[in-house]
Design brief:
This protein is of the alpha/beta class. The chain is built from three helices and six strands. It has helices at 28-36, 84-92, 102-106, and strands at residues 13-18, 40-42, 62-64, 67-68, 76-80, 98-100. Strand 5 (76-80), helix 2 (84-92) and strand 6 (98-100) form a beta-alpha-beta unit.
Length: 107
């Protein structure tokens, strides 16, 4: 692994859904690396695209000046062998959330 660049992911809010092929949760190491690079990792992605109102359960996140992720609550999903629902939510976000693989974190 290359030296971790401090702050490289400043402003990113990331949900990590990484599992082994056997189904065990393997998110921990990626959360640690992302946090070291300045990202904020969330344990749950509570946004429900089908709900008419969110009731304030997801905070507004300022990604860069003038850009607001808003009620969706995250900027990225790191995904490997995770839940089908996670991918459905990424699709429903209409391009606001970037879905990346584990290689994106490691590069």
């Amino acid at each position: 692994l290359k030296a971790v660049q401090k702050g490289a992911l400043q402003g990113a809010v990331v949900f990590v859904d990484v599992h082994t092929t056997e189904g065990a949760d393997a998110s921990g190491i990626f959360i640690e690396l992302l946090t070291q690079m300045g990202a904020r990792c969330v344990k749950q992605w509570n946004w429900n695209p089908r709900a008419s109102t969110l009731g304030g359960e997801v905070e507004t996140v300022n990604v860069t000046p003038g850009e607001v992720v808003g009620k969706i609550g995250i900027t990225h999903v790191v995904f490997k062998d995770g839940g089908k629902r996670t991918l459905e939510k990424v699709r429903d976000a209409g391009g606001v959330v970037r879905c990346v693989g584990v290689g994106w974190v490691l590069e």
